[in-house]
Structure prediction request, 472 residues.
Amino acid sequence: MLLSVTTRHDIRRERRQRGSRCLLGAFSLPVLVAAVFGLANAQTPGENANPDSSTSGKPITLQEAIRRAQANEPAYAASSAESRASALDRSIARAGLLPGVVYHNQALYTQSNGQQNQAGQGVGSQPSPKFIANNAVREYASQAEINETLGLRQLAGVRRADAEAARAAAELEVSRRGLVEAVTSLFYGSIAADNKLAVANRAHREAADFTVLTSERDQAREAAHADVVKAQLAEQQRERDLADAKVTAEKARLELGVLLFPDPRTPYTLADTDGVPELASRAEIEHAAARNNPELKSALAALNVTNADVLAARAVYLPDLDLNVTYGIDAPQFAVNGPDRVRNLGYSASVTLDIPVWDWLSTEHKVKQSEIRRDAARVALTAAQRRLIARLDEVYSEAVAARDQLASLDASVATAAESLRLTKLRYTGGEATVLEVVDAQNAFVGAENAHEDGIVRYQQARADLETLIGTM
Prediction:
């Protein structure tokens, strides 16, 4: 039992020291590369070479990692930009239902045809313009125009913009939850890789100590030299495992660093959570998933978009009512009053009603097109509902199985540690073979690695479940 307690103490001490040792070895080569390519010279004078040095001494929590990833991940940034742009499209569509005001100013000169007419304002004749559409040789317009178009198509446009904005918001939430899921996987994967590195260090020291033990027993004629050879082979394998664990831990840190920092080589430590969080009940999960699932909201918004398209296509059958009110000056003089105190300032109003009669069935075909797309959107909505039901069952079952196995994995680690301690005592007393000790060492390392994998599996399953129901 003393060996088991000492071993666990070494593992905890190794986990505390793993950050400084791994980062020192991993950063020696990147610093050299940065010096060769002049990356340090690209910084402004006085700028710190470490873009986020404040994080080196402060552990990063999962929520902090998610926040940093949302600021650095391009796909999430694109979804966020699309959502904001769609919200502006909705505002633009609603503004189209309101009257538009334009202040129009124009000065027009037309060549005279040499004749005189009485068409202009005031008493007496004036030169006649060559262009019959113009009223005088010189004409000035300064008018405020108010235009409004009333029709079903404008209302359909607003509905479509609202649905597009809702779909963009749902897609943004889908992107956010996908990013959260990825960050959670990398976060706990990096912690597990560091823990496995600590296990590999402990296993390598234990193999080296066992090699010394077999050598001493060989010199004392208490064991065969074959035991020394077997122990040396096991130690060499532990050296290779340690090298692989270092590479794996560094890869995990760099993959997470890509999402967290401008420079993925920035040193950082992760805040490992203690304990295993509990799962919500099945009824609570199903209720939250039906209410907060973004895939369903996106599919429903897509259906609303197609419904608005159908309404807009059918609106072409109906007439549009155009209203226009003009107030200002349209006269041969740029003045409020013309000759003989004629009032130039005034207004005009017009109402236009365009009734569609015949368009060679193009409107009917557009209506059919929109209805076909609407039917496809309905199928997509029902498929999203089925996928949600199936995925919810799969993820919940995975989370429950992973949670239930954690206790068994803890017991396996404790059992393997005790088995190794007893086997080494039996070998020291001459009652066990070297193969039994090596097998016990392998079993202990395998149990510890399996325990780390089990934690990652549960945390990943829990993250999948929480992102599915919208609580993370």
The domain at 2-98+151-318+358-469 is CATH 1.20.1600.10 (Outer membrane efflux proteins (OEP)).
